[in-house]
Write a structure and sequence with these properties.
This protein has 838 residues and is an alpha+beta fold. The chain is 42% helix and 17% strand. It contains 27 helices and 30 strands. The strands form 10 sheets. Strands 2-1-14-16 form a 4-stranded antiparallel β-sheet. Helix 18 packs antiparallel against helix 19 (583-610). The relative contact order is 0.06. The model has no long low-confidence stretch (mean pLDDT 91).
């Protein structure tokens, strides 16, 4: 629904879902093939277990928080706050020691001591040489555990140089346990309660943390605590603290696939845009960790693996699993695997693994499973795979993009696409990640249709948030959206999101900015209506082919707007071209053209012309309709709905060869771009802006239209031909252009303003302004210029100036000094004229 409302042009008949029958069968096929290829296996390894979710999660779904010293942390499903940010120092007694010797170590997770299998020391640490080969007494299980030597695990310089080893609940300890063949003692069950027999069994793991410390203190083994900063992993879905758990799971060996994906990016066969994401790609794929694809959830693709039993007993106590597409195939594979007779094979019973697959496993097949794979004869597969471009968020670069690349290479021998455009993450206007509990989640449909504050509150209340979180979310909404979210429409939201693509890795979405683009849509509508019903008239039909006009025969304003249109089209095409995707360049170019160039300048210049009945009016009308029609096509990909509607209202719509603007050719530059035209227009616009500023400075409104005398040398002829343009845009009276030697013809009572070193403007102010106040302003401005000129002349008169200062700098300084002297003389003259008004 969101995609439809935002204007996505898609083949909706090809809508797919990973749980569709075909996609589901592709998932089964991929799982079986990976197993048959030796890339998929079942193993007992440490996984990231979320007790609240009751499932294993991938490394990428673990978010790490920095825990400050002595922090009190809340955990889902546990009423008490949990003591964290603390190191607990504990002593284990050395077995067989006459002097009551002990080894002291520290831990942030005292509850895991129940599963310690050893203490580790560095083989080269002289402090503990005498303990080589000895054991310590484990006070909880009341047994001896070894003191092992391990240079990989132990850092002699950290703490006491002694490390406890709990293979079943720590990744580093697990690898250490494999090196030393240590027992893996499982302490926790899947709900996060103590599983070991004894006084702690059934106790919540964080209750056990306190109970263990109390026991140690009673036994005289607690050696103190201290605050300690460290990082703790949390589940990205539930915010529960992750527990490393030793469990049998299904894994994919991705080493070869990862190498191929790395090579594709390194050799530019696959292009990541922006290329700054290449370092992330290398980081994730370079780790080459087995991919755990089992999930203990109730929803998803069930693992196509079966545990075989015969006469109520597992067929093989070590490995009783077969991977198959269906039960018939499972039976055949079981018979071959264990060399069973036909009679025993018929008696086999199978229990399918209740686990489901990681959602990214099925999503990784998406580029080719949706095209008919594994059917090699699929026409869609042959026609549409591989694709050209993937657009997605950078936050799932490894979750999804890398998995698609690896799976495509393995199963098809091809990359799934050539380019990956990674957009920024949308956050709230303060840069905070959107979260239901914060109340800052913005539904795109709410922005399109608008929503009241009370309706926003209802979206929070309808969720499963705790009452305290609901109150916090509503408080934020009242502050951030005190009047709700106004109706913005699809075009404004689409244009706004595209304009944010220059923001890097985050988009701080401000609704006020989207509202501004809604007003831009209104401006487009009103402008086009003005053109159609006022500038052109209902009977107008184009009579001139603008693109066939001579480039040097047009009035300046017409030539300028065509030049600016060419520049805007060029910028839009460049912003949307392959490997660039700089959509902000396109939005800025189109916004600038429509608002600041077409509306603010050219349309205003057409108004006095439309009051005439001349060839100039006809020419301007034809240029205007050409520019608006082409401008709508230029803007269409960015604002599809309003441009489609307005395009159909163009007076010559019936002559268009396309039934919809969507399939009309995208505009191209037509050779109108002219540096000379734009430089000339800049002189005109600089003059206009100077006059507007002068009026504002004198506090004159548009009702006041003082006459203007422009004094120029180099640009006299240009300005003389553009007096109507200057008068129209600056909202002034008659404009007269004089040569420098004619400046004496300027009547008394004018105020003077400099446009540039060549152009000065005199504005008739007599009887309109406060003369004494204006004289003070001139004196103040003259004083500043005199100070700057004096400083510059001091530098220029220095004895070593000619020798030490480069020639180019000396020339620039000379020009600056001359310009300041000229402006001073003009100010003196302006003051003299004002004085005569008194």
């Amino acid at each position: 629904r969101q995609l439809r409302m935002i204007g996505s042009s898609l083949d909706w008949s090809r809508e797919r879902f990973t749980m569709d029958d075909h996609c589901a069968s592709a998932v089964t096929e991929a799982f079986v093939r990976l197993h048959e290829d030796g890339k998929l296996y079942r193993a007992t390894r440490l996984v990231n277990w979320c007790c609240a979710l009751q499932s294993a999660i991938s490394d990428l779904e673990v978010e790490f928080d920095d825990v400050p010293k002595e922090a009190k942390v809340r955990v889902p499903g546990y009423e008490r706050v949990v003591q964290m940010g603390r190191l607990t120092h504990v002593a284990y007694k050395v077995v067989g020691s006459d002097s009551d010797e002990e080894l002291v170590f520290a831990t942030t997770r005292p509850e895991t001591m129940l599963g310690d299998s050893a203490l580790a020391i560095h083989p080269e640490d002289p402090r503990y040489t005498k303990f080589h080969g000895k054991k310590v007494w484990h006070p909880f299980r009341e047994c001896e555990i070894p003191i092992i030597l391990d240079a990989t695990l132990v850092d002699m310089a950290f703490g006491t140089g002694v490390v406890k080893v709990t293979p079943a609940h720590d990744p580093n300890d697990f690898e250490t346990g494999k090196r030393h063949n240590l027992e893996s003692v499982v302490v926790l069950d899947l709900k996060g309660h103590i599983a070991l027999e004894g006084p702690y069994k059934g106790m919540h793991r964080f209750d056990a943390r306190y109970a263990v410390c109390e026991f140690l203190e009673k036994q005289g083994l607690l050696r103190g605590t201290e605050g300690h900063e460290y990082r703790v992993g949390r589940c990205s879905r539930t915010n529960d603290i992750i527990e490393p758990m030793l469990m049998p799971q299904w894994f994919v060996d991705t080493d070869e696939m990862a190498d191929a994906a790395l090579k594709a990016v390194e050799e530019k066969e696959l292009v990541l845009i922006p290329d700054s994401h290449e370092s992330t790609w290398r980081h994730f794929l370079g780790q080459k960790k087995p991919w755990c694809i089992s999930r203990q959830l109730w929803w998803g693709h069930r693992v196509p693996a079966y545990e075989a039993s015969l006469n109520g007993q597992l067929v093989d106590a070590k490995d009783s699993w077969v991977v198959a597409r269906n039960l018939d195939e499972a039976r055949q594979k079981a018979q071959a695997k264990w060399s069973l007779s036909d009679e025993d094979t018929a008696k086999l019973e199978f229990a399918q693994d209740p686990d489901v697959l990681d959602t990214w496993f099925s999503s990784g097949l998406w580029p080719f499973s949706t095209m008919g794979w594994p059917n090699k004869d699929s026409l869609d597969l042959a026609t549409y795979f591989p694709n050209s471009l993937l657009e997605t968020g950078h936050d799932i670069l490894f979750f999804w993009v890398a998995r698609m690349v690896m799976m495509s290479i393995h199963f098809t021998g091809k990359l799934p696409f050539k380019e990956v455009f990674l957009h920024a993450m949308v956050r709230d206007k303060d840069g905070q990640k959107m979260s239901k509990s914060k109340g800052n989640v913005i539904d795109p449909i709410a922005v399109i249709n608008g929503i009241s504050l009370e309706e926003l509150h209802d979206t929070v209340r309808a969720g499963n948030l705790a009452e305290s979180e609901v109150e916090r979310a509503i408080k934020y909404q009242k502050k951030a959206f005190k009047d709700g979210i106004p109706t913005c429409g699809s075009d404004a939201l689409r244009f706004g999101l595209l304009s944010y693509t220059q923001s890097g890795k985050s988009v701080n979405l401000d609704i006020d900015r989207i509202v501004g683009y809604r007003q831009f849509c209104n401006k487009l509508w009103n402008v086009t209506r003005y053109v159609l019903y006022h500038a052109l008239g209902e009977e107008f039909q184009p009579s001139i082919k603008v693109d066939e006009l001579a480039r040097d025969a047009l009035p300046l304003d017409c030539a300028w707007i065509l030049s600016r249109l060419d520049q805007a089209v060029e910028d839009c095409r460049r912003g949307m071209q392959e490997t660039t995707y700089d959509f902000a360049l396109a939005t800025n170019a189109s916004y600038r053209f429509w608002l600041y160039e077409l509306c603010d300048v050219f349309l205003e210049l057409t108004k006095p012309i439309m009051a005439q009945d001349s060839e100039r009016k006809t020419l301007t009308q034809n240029v205007l309709v050409h520019v608006v029609e082409k401008g709508l096509r230029m803007l269409h990909p960015l604002m599809p709905f309003v441009t489609e509607e307005l395009w159909h209202r163009m007076p010559h719509f019936k002559t268009f060869t396309s039934p919809s603007i969507m399939v009309a050719p995208y505009p191209k530059p037509e050779g109108w771009r002219s540096d000379k035209v734009e430089a000339d227009m800049k002189i005109v616009m600089d003059t206009v802006h100077t006059l507007r500023s002068a009026k504002a400075e004198y506090q004159l409104t548009n009702k006041n239209k003082p006459d203007i005398w422009l004094v120029a040398t180099q640009h006299k002829e240009l300005l003389a031909s553009q007096t109507l343009a200057v008068a129209t845009l600056a909202v002034v009276g008659n404009v007269t252009v004089l040569a420098k030697e004619q400046e004496g013809e300027v009547p008394e009572g004018c105020g003077f303003t400099t446009v540039n070193p060549d152009v000065g403007s005199h504005m008739m102010l007599k009887g309109i302004i406060d003369v004494a106040g204006e004289v003070k302003k001139i004196d103040k401005k003259a004083a500043l210029i005199e100070k700057s000129l004096a400083s510059l002349e001091t530098k220029m008169k220095a004895p070593t100036y000619e020798q030490k200062v480069p020639e180019a700098v000396r020339a620039t300084n000379a020009e600056k000094a001359a310009a300041m002297r000229l402006e001073l003389s003009q100010l003196v003259e302006a003051k003299a004229r004002l004085e005569k008004m008194k």
